Amino acid sequence: MPGSGKSEAMQVAKGLGLPVVRMGDLVWEEVDRQGLPRDPATVGRIANAMRETEGPDVWAMRTVARVRQIGARMVLIDGVRSNHEVTVFRRELGDDFTLVAIHSDQAERFRRMTARARDDDPTDDAAHTERDEREMGWGIARTIALADEMLVNGGSLDAFRGATRRLLERLSG
Question: Environment class of residue 122 by beta-carbon count within 10 Å: exposed (0-12), middle (13-18) or buried (19+)?
């Protein structure tokens, strides 16, 4: 879910020299290409519109293309949202694909998003709830349930970073 700690996990990956593809960046690229603002409503609208016009796997297919372009042995994908996307990754990337879910308390996620203040982050409780509901509508709960691995981000930042590092080292082994 948004604010769970995916960006922190990706920073750990980058620190280990692993490339990262953030699916949200692909949405931002499309928003920018269309000359639209990166506010939460617009980003969500474009993400949904592209799913409706190009299929529910549009962002996964664009991500696979980016992963293949990078060509590294291990690439982390940040932001898998739906079972459609998981299906694409398992089909296109094969047995090497490992789905990792990151879990964090809702109130803590909201606090983190408010503090980081990214362009597409909600700014009040109602907007946070709306974003969570949009994510749930894309099937993120089922995606979390399908995870091969789970990281819980409920303690200190150092503890989460350590757990992430250990998982990535094991998976890249």
Answer: buried
Distance of CA 3 to the CA centre of its chain: 10
Q: What b-and-e string marks burial along 15-29, b requiring 16 or more CB atoms within 10 Å of the CB?
A: eeebbbbbbbebbbe
- Within 13 Å of residue 167, how many CA atoms lie on the same side as its CB? 21
Beta carbons of 23 and 77 less than 8 angstroms apart: yes
Q: Would you identify the CATH topology of the domain 6-172?
A: Rossmann fold (3.40.50)
- pLDDT tens, N- to C-terminus, the chain (173 residues): 778 898 899 999 999 999 999 998 999 999 999 999 998 889 989 998 999 999 989 999 999 999 999 999 999 999 898 888 999 999 999 988 999 999 988 888 888 877 777 766 667 777 777 777 777 776 788 888 899 999 999 888 999 999 999 999 999 87
Please give the Cα distance from 73 to 25 (Å, whole number). Answer: 21
d(CA 43, CA 79): 14
- Cβ contacts of 118 within 8 Å, gap of 6 or more: none
